[in-house]
């Protein structure tokens, strides 16, 4: 993993001091809330329903065991003993006091973490593939590029007051675990016909009120020009993105209104100019960063055999463990989705346990996924059973990865001041209805994603089944959509019909699942069947 | 009735206007009638509250009940974690919200 | 009209600033005021004879002026570049990094806070028009400023 040098540390430390002073000025009345709000947001501090909420960045979803332990320590010391992992690979604390926030940031800085630009109309935390550096199929590890972008985007003076927030993802596989086409900018490393590796650049994807799948704005960008190209993309957006209407201010609207061709033309024109400015760091700097992501010292000659005699372990193995590029190793997915739990929540004790397991079995490394789960990326197959036993004892071994119980849910109206309806109780009801894990496995991959408002933090547009909570005359109501995907076969879910109460949604999903099981062809997922047969039989079953 | 609510500037706690100060307990909230905005402005300027706003509520035997579910949830805490709310001993408090 | 802070040693320019349209129509003005929607590149042929370009910030959240300033400096403008309008003290550091060397704030700027903030960030990650060496340059050659 990348380690800060003195420069990185000095910059993060400076931010802590700056925010300490801003907080002091706010509490002393020198700053109004209107003035303080953008400043606190750029440090990840929101005012939510019950308290302040602090969003801590987990850059590209990678963190070390000591960093994970610090997250637990902060939860225990300053919050109510738990944290919430988000769909943007971050961690949120729900019960923060404003006066404590500078101290928390100072503590985070001691383990090379921060909350910089986790909110505000600026470039947000860079997301990436949770299997980066471990997946066999990747072109190269995308994280050095993500770290380069973390540094470049940190306090980038030109882009701190963009029309709206800006999310960038970097991946290096064709298989997409990051929803790369649903970001403001998605960067996909790939090999061109001459065998060179460069970026495919998607611009203008996003969810929210107006979901869009990003068009490819450049099929191949040489790696060494990444920064000067992104400067061009962002400058065109900063100058011409709409500022008259909050809901039309994201870059997707600019790209859509200009058309991909015209946006591309403007970017290319600006890029001709930015290339002359010497904005890209030299190769040596990239190599310095990449050295931080050198593969761990994998043992050789390990066996790939795993003793499957314990049936419960075998079930977990088949569901939660993915192939690793190194022989004898595996990737472990830790489920933060127990049937009666809160998607993405983990107690301090659980966070500590995951840190311990990473230290003992995964070269001290962990990953956070956009589906609100945790990954141990580099585990010896020989250790899998021991890991499973410890996870199971802590309620972290529900074998439901990508199944109907592995629901993405935003915090919703239980916590969030923007929400119109609660998300978590609905997720719990659905998970409970389909609580039989054998049935879940029979239904196969089925991604349910729930957002409590139009901002779509729960990625409902990308759900095989997407659910959007709305406020209908003061009552919680839920719109049901089908056919979305945030993977390499990205698509936007379509609303099936009139909305439902909480219980009505559960019944409607039961009916939709019934349609799927009666119509599915061999090997078809729910999504495949829906795409093949269309919405009619689902609509008929639900409303007929 | 109309009641005034906001969050404590320093702690972020949900607070309710009691007529002469702020309380974390909605039972202490009083009808502010047409005075809500004026009180809110003065209290915000004095940094005793953050983001105050006036809401509709009805008086019940158990105290004021906000018209909107959002403020009912603010009054009791997250319905999925009754243990963390103001009435942890009452696991059915979530029902009051709906 | 506001609180002016200058980070240059020459005399303050007294001539009233004209709009981009009137300048382009026919003007010998040496001071101009750009709105966020104006195209700064329209001024490139005339940069030599301008001694003040004022860039409007109608709201502090409107960040277009940051790009306008960067473009003007990248094009070689050396005269005074003034950010004018709704500006927070906390924005002065990024404004200066984008090439502004004067701030005309509607509200009074706390000089002590401004100085403290300016002193905080000895290291920067990006190469910009302010000429400071980014950390990636300093890493390979620590003698860089």
Which helices and strands, and how do they pair?
The complex is a heterotrimer of chains A (544), B (98) and C (145).
Chain A: H1 6-27, H2 33-41, E1 45-47, E2 52-56, E3 62-64, H3 65-78, E4 82-85, E5 91-96, H4 101-109, E6 127-128, H5 143-153, E7 168-171, E8 185-191, E9 197-203, E10 216-222, H6 226-240, H7 251-258, H8 260-274, H9 283-291, H10 311-320, E11 321-323, E12 329-334, E13 345-347, H11 348-361, E14 365-368, E15 374-380, H12 384-393, E16 408-409, H13 424-433, H14 437-443, E17 448-451, E18 465-472, E19 475-482, E20 494-495, H15 502-519, H16 526-533, H17 536-543
Parallel strand pairs in A: 6-7, 7-8, 16-17, 17-18
Antiparallel strand pairs in A: 1-2, 2-5, 3-14, 4-5, 4-13, 8-9, 9-10, 11-12, 12-15, 14-15, 18-19, 19-20
Chain B: E1 2-7, E2 14-17, E3 22-23, H1 36-45, E4 50-60, E5 63-66, H2 69-76, H3 93-97
Antiparallel strand pairs in B: 1-2, 1-4, 2-3, 4-5
Chain C: E1 3-6, E2 18-19, H1 20-26, E3 31-34, E4 52-57, H2 64-74, E5 80-85, H3 92-97, E6 102-105, H4 111-120, H5 135-140
Parallel strand pairs in C: 2-3, 3-4, 4-5, 5-6
Antiparallel strand pairs in C: 1-6
Structure write-up:
The complex is a heterotrimer of chains A (544), B (98) and C (145). Chain A is α+β, with helices and mostly antiparallel strands. Chain A has 17 helices and 20 strands. In chain A, a hairpin with a 5-residue loop joins β4 (82-85) and β5 (91-96). The mean pLDDT of chain B is 94. Chain C has 145 residues and is α/β, with parallel strands linked by helices. A six-stranded mixed beta sheet of chain C has the order 1-6-5-4-3-2. The longest helix of chain C is centred in the middle third of the chain and has 11 residues, at 64-74. The relative contact order of chain C is 0.16. Chain A binds chain B through residues 26-27, 29, 33, 47-52, 80, 94-99, 342, 413-415, 417, 419, 422, 424-425, 428, 474-476, and chain B through 7, 9-14, 44, 47, 50-51, 67-70, 73-74, 77-81, 84.
Label the structural class of chain A.
alpha+beta
Mean pLDDT across every amino acid position of chain B: 94
The string of secondary-structure elements of chain B, in order, is EEEHEEHH
Strand content of chain A: 15-25%
- What oligomeric state best describes the polypeptide chains here? heterotrimer
Helix tally of chain B equals: 3
What is the helix content of chain A?
25-40%
């Amino acid at each position: 993993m990348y380690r800060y040098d003195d420069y990185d540390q000095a910059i993060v430390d400076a931010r802590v001091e700056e925010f300490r002073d801003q907080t002091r000025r706010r509490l002393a009345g020198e700053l109004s809330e209107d003035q303080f709000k953008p400043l606190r947001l750029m440090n990840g501090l929101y005012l939510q329903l019950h308290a302040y909420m602090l969003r801590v960045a987990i850059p590209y979803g990678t963190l070390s065991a000591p960093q994970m332990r610090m997250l637990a320590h902060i939860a225990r010391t300053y919050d109510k003993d738990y944290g919430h992992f988000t769909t943007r690979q971050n961690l949120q604390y729900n019960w923060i006091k404003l006066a404590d926030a500078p101290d928390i940031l100072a503590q985070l800085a001691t383990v090379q973490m921060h909350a910089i630009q986790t909110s505000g109309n600026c470039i947000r935390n860079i997301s990436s593939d949770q299997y980066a550096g471990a997946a066999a199929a990747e072109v190269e590890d995308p994280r050095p590029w993500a770290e380069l972008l973390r540094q470049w985007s940190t306090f980038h003076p030109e882009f701190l007051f963009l029309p709206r927030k800006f999310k960038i993802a970097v991946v290096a596989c064709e298989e997409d675990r990051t929803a790369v086409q649903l970001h403001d900018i998605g960067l996909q490393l790939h090999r061109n016909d001459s065998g060179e590796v460069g970026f495919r650049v998607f611009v203008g994807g996003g969810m929210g009120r107006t979901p869009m799948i990003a068009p490819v704005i450049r099929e191949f960008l040489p790696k060494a020009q990444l920064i000067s190209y992104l400067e061009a993309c962002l400058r065109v957006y900063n100058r011409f993105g709409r500022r008259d209407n909050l809901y039309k201010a994201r870059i997707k609207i600019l790209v859509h209104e200009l058309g991909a061709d015209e946006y591309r033309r403007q970017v290319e024109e600006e890029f001709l100019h930015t290339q002359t400015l010497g904005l890209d760091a030299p190769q040596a700097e990239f190599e310095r960063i990449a050295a931080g992501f050198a593969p761990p010292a994998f043992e050789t000659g390990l066996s790939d055999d795993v003793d499957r005699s314990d049936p419960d372990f075998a079930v977990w193995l088949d569901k939660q463990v993915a192939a690793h590029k190194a022989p004898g190793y595996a990737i472990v997915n830790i489920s933060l989705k127990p049937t009666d739990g809160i998607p993405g929540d983990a107690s301090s004790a659980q966070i500590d346990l995951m840190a311990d397991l990473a230290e003992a079995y995964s070269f001290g490394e962990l990953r956070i996924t956009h589906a609100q789960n945790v990954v141990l990326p580099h585990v010896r197959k020989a250790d899998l059973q021991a890991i499973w036993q410890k996870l199971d004892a802590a309620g972290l071994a529900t074998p439901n990865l990508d199944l109907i119980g592995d629901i993405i849910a935003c915090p919703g109206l239980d916590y969030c001041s923007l929400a119109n309806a609660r998300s978590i109780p609905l997720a719990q009801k659905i998970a409970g209805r389909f609580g039989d894990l054998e049935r879940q496995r029979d239904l196969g991959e089925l991604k349910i994603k729930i957002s409590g408002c139009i901002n779509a933090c729960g990625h409902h547009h990308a759900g095989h089944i997407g659910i959007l909570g709305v406020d209908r005359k003061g009552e919680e109501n839920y719109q049901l959509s089908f056919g979305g995907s945030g993977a390499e076969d990205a698509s936007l879910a379509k609303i099936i019909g009139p909305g439902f109460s909480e219980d009505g949604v559960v019944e409607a999903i039961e009916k939709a699942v019934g349609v799927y099981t009666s119509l599915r062809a061999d090997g078809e997922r729910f999504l495949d069947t829906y795409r093949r047969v269309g919405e009619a039989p689902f609509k008929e079953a639900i409303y007929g | 009735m109309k009641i005034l609510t906001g969050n404590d500037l320093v702690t972020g706690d949900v607070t309710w206007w009691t007529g002469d100060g702020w309380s974390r307990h909605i039972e202490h909230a009083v009808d502010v009638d047409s005075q809500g905005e004026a009180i809110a402005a003065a209290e915000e300027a004095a940094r005793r509250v953050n983001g105050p706003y006036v809401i509709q509520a009805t008086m019940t035997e158990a105290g004021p009940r906000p018209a909107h579910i959002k403020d009912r949830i603010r009054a009791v805490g997250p319905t999925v974690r009754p243990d963390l709310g103001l009435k942890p001993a009452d696991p059915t408090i979530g029902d009051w919200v709906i | 009209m506001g609180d002016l802070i200058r980070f240059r040693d020459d005399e303050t320019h007294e001539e009233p600033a004209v709009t981009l349209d009137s300048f382009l129509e026919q003007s010998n003005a040496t001071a101009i005021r750009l709105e966020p929607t104006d195209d700064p590149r329209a001024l490139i042929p005339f940069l030599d004879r301008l001694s003040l370009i004022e860039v409007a910030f109608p709201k502090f959240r409107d960040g277009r002026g940051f790009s306008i300033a960067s473009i003007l400096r990248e094009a070689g403008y050396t005269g005074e570049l003034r950010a004018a309008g709704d500006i927070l003290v906390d924005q002065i550091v990024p404004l200066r990094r984008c090439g502004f060397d004067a701030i005309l704030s509607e509200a009074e700027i706390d000089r002590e806070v401004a100085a403290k903030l300016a002193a905080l960030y000895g290291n920067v990650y990006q190469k910009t028009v302010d000429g400071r060496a980014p950390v990636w340059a300093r890493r390979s050659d620590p003698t860089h400023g």
